[in-house]
Specification:
It contains nine helices and two strands; from the N terminus they run ααααααααββα. The chain is mainly alpha-helical and about 210 residues long. Among the domains are: about 40 residues, Arc Repressor Mutant, subunit A; about 45 residues, no CATH class; about 50 residues, no CATH class. Helix 1 runs antiparallel to helix 2.
Length: about 210
């Protein structure tokens, strides 16, 4: 049965104070008979309907270990929680779990996300890009009309080009409805190229591309 909320507890006590028996109160509240009985007993003993303080399981890591976990993942952003858990021992010299590492990192504001996929850039590439941006930061609209920014992307036609999951049992690896059929060399794909710039400049480039075809 569902756990009674704070409002439901006060409502159940109100029904009891109105003279209704416990057998009728727990049916109306959709609760256990013992829960209603203990609720009334707790009110007489503690003068409140709130839960009593409980002794939770102590933390298996120290504050120093928590700081080390955050520092390790800040130094290596692609370090997995499972690999980090293997390197950390709790107070009784037992290994901690990966979920413990995730909770410690989550407390520090770190979340596991899909990384941004970008081009490989050396230090020289980064320096040249910074210089280009600084040199052209003060350009006006008239100067920018002669500039076209282009980019290209590849789209797979046969299947989704990304991480795919299949819901199956441990013994259902080879059934036809659990197998992802894929052509060799990743199948057919389509390369698209787009550009952003002055309308007159873009039209000239597209006309030249049509003539080449």
């Amino acid at each position: 049965m569902p756990r009674l909320t704070e409002v439901d507890r006060h409502r159940a006590l109100g029904l009891l104070q109105a003279g209704l028996p416990i057998s009728e109160v727990y049916l109306r509240m959709n609760a256990n008979r013992t829960s209603i009985f203990r609720l009334r007993q707790r009110l007489h003993e503690t003068d409140t309907v709130s839960d009593r303080p409980r002794s939770w399981r102590p933390r298996c890591t120290t504050q120093r270990q928590d700081r080390n976990l955050v520092r390790n993942h800040m130094n290596n952003r692609f370090l997995s929680a499972t690999a980090s858990a293997r390197q950390t021992r709790e107070r009784n010299n037992q290994r901690i779990g990966a979920n413990t590492v995730r909770r410690r990192l989550s407390t520090s504001g770190l979340r596991a996300r899909r990384p941004y996929i970008g081009p490989i850039l050396t230090q020289r590439h980064r320096h040249q890009r910074t210089l280009w941006a600084q040199e052209h930061a003060a350009w006006d609209r008239i100067q920018l009309r002669n500039v076209v920014f282009s980019d290209e992307s590849r789209f797979c036609i046969d299947h989704a080009h990304g991480r795919v999951r299949v819901w199956r049992r441990s013994s259902e690896r080879y059934p036809a409805d659990c197998v992802r059929e894929q052509a060799r060399w990743d199948g057919a794909s389509l390369m698209m190229c787009c550009c952003i710039g002055s309308p007159r400049r873009v039209h000239t480039i597209l006309a030249g591309a049509c003539l080449d075809l």
